[in-house]
Amino acid sequence: MPRLLVPAALGLTLLLGGCAIATPPSSITSGTHAPLLPSTLFAGGAESFTSWRCHPNQALVTAAPEGELRLWSAHGAWRLQPAVVASGDRYEGEQVSFWNEGTDAIVETSRGRLECQAYMQRQAFTRQQRPGVMFLGRGNEPGWMASLAHDRPQLTLSLDYGTREQTLPYRVTALDNEAGRVVLASGRGDTPFELRIQAGACLDDMSGEPFPARVTLTVDGEQYRGCGQGIAP
Question: Which residues of the chain have pLDDT under 70?
Answer without folding.
Answer: 1-30
